[in-house]
Amino acid sequence: MNRRKFIASTGGIGTAAIGTTVVLSGSAAAEIRDYTFRGTSISGESDDGSVTDIRAKAVNVGFRYEGLDEEPEEATVELQVVHGGETETIDEATTEVSGTSQSNVALGKELAGSVLDHDGLSASDFKAEEDSSTTEKNVALRLKLTVNGVNGSSETDLNVVMRNTEADAGVGGEADGEVVTEEEDDPDDDPDDGPVEEINAIIEDINAQLENVDPVSTIEDTSNETIGALIDEIFTQVTAEIEAQAGVEYDVSTPAEAREAAENASLPPIADALNNAADAVEEIAALADYTIDDGGDGGNDTVAEINAIVEDINAKLENVDPVGTIEDTSDETIGALIDEIFTQVTAEIEAQAGVEYDVSTPAEAREAAEDASLPPIADALNNAADAVEEIAALADYTIDDGSDGDGGDGENDDSDTVAEINAIVEDINAKLENVDPVGTIENTDDGTIDDLVAEIFTQVTAEIEAQSGMEYDVSTVAEAREAAENAPLPPIADALNNAADAVEDIRNLASQ
């Protein structure tokens, strides 16, 4: 289970962001990208306090290097356990690299292994001997990067807590660390113990972030009554913790209400706490096969999603009235909502920039965006179009774009595709300042698309040469991405990657 922190308290467990550059010979340097080990405090329980294994994992690992004398072929990242002055590698992975400098390389693999593979550690070191006793021990986890003999590393403490409980206690763990115990099965165990254990692990994650209020109680069964009471307690304690830390009161009892409150939260940690509580409750409900009562029928989920989009729009409206939220997804309601979105967004543009727009469909908004005099105006119009299309999809609403609806011979579908491709072309042309624009198309024949792709790469690389003096010869998406990885400047990499993205979008559209 991968869950975010509920409230990001300074110095709290799981917040150790690490990543120090280690400079070796000359000016060469290698660095593990700022990496937060999740699950840096893991716990387990058994009826005799014993532990069989302790697992650690690192995910989403990235790194950088620079100033190498020779171009490397590969880089290796090791997950290590450091204890008593000795280091043991418990997992490693190698990935291909190229270029004497790279700014942001993803390893693309998880690293995982047993902490007890370290020769200086054994299961007995972590055993809690007495009933109701607790043993707590720190070891260090390290990520080490090696590329052409240049090293960089990141390190954090792993806090392992082992509890000796009375018989029949559950076993807990966390997202990226796990304490493994062996206990004899009790024939009287409830068949729901699996979900109970997983749910209690989620509760322990929540409790780890509650510093000022009582912890949420664990459960012993997954009856509807138990789960309903648990959900109420989670929201009660999380909002009480927010009030204790930030002085802000919230009254939420469902994931939808928590997410809505998060959207309007004054501080990111508050929004995270509310969203994480919603995530936890939804995960618990899924595990327990419990239906959350959101006060209405299933259509309210769609209403909530649409209203979340509306609130995102309203967050950008500073000079006009907000767009009203909805209570149903009837065609009449959605049609009126779309009209109001375009009305208020264009009114906000006029208030801020003094420019008037009259748009009522996504197509009109995108067309106006292409001709907009300022990037923020284009962004506002495109964002409104995106929002309306997303709302229409959620509500199963057909947007009237003014066409005659004659789809018998497929010509209108092809025209729509041509329009979408030409919109991509215009986006490309907006970035070409020193070369001729890429030509638009009139059909999606294979020859036409091939010629368009060739012209895109030709004009984009010509623009790069005009601006930076760097020549590139690419004719495929793969070649463009490879060139982007070795580009000396981020804007060049962006231009090549954007061209590759555009070509992929165009070919996908043309193949439909």
Model description:
The chain is of the alpha+beta class and 512 residues long. It is 41% helix and 18% strand. The protein has 12 helices and 14 strands. It has helices spanning 193-207, 224-246, 255-263, 268-288, 299-314, 331-353, 362-370, 375-395, 411-429, 446-468, 477-485, 490-511, and strands spanning 17-18, 22-23, 29-32, 35-36, 41-46, 53-58, 62-66, 74-83, 86-96, 102-106, 111-114, 134-147, 150-164, 177-180. Strands 5-13-12-8-9 form a 5-stranded mixed sheet, with no helix packed on it. A hairpin with a 5-residue loop joins strand 2 (22-23) and strand 3. Helix 1 (193-207) runs antiparallel to helix 4 (268-288) and helix 3 (255-263) runs antiparallel to helix 4. The longest helix has 23 residues, at 224-246. The radius of gyration is 28 Å and the shape is flat. The model is unreliable at 1-41, 164-192 and 403-412 (pLDDT under 50).
What brief labels describe this structure?
512 residues; alpha+beta; five-stranded mixed β-sheet; four-stranded antiparallel β-sheet; 12 helices; 18% strand; disordered N terminus
Strand order of the largest sheet: 5-13-12-8-9
Provide the low-confidence segments as ranges: 1-41, 164-192, 403-412
Rounded to the nearest angstrom, the radius of gyration is 28 Å
Number of strands: 14
| Helix share bin | 40-55%
How would you describe the shape? Answer: flat
Number of helices, where a helix is a run of at least 4 consecutive DSSP H or I residues:
12
- Rounded mean pLDDT is 76
How big a fraction of the residues is strand?
A: 15-25%
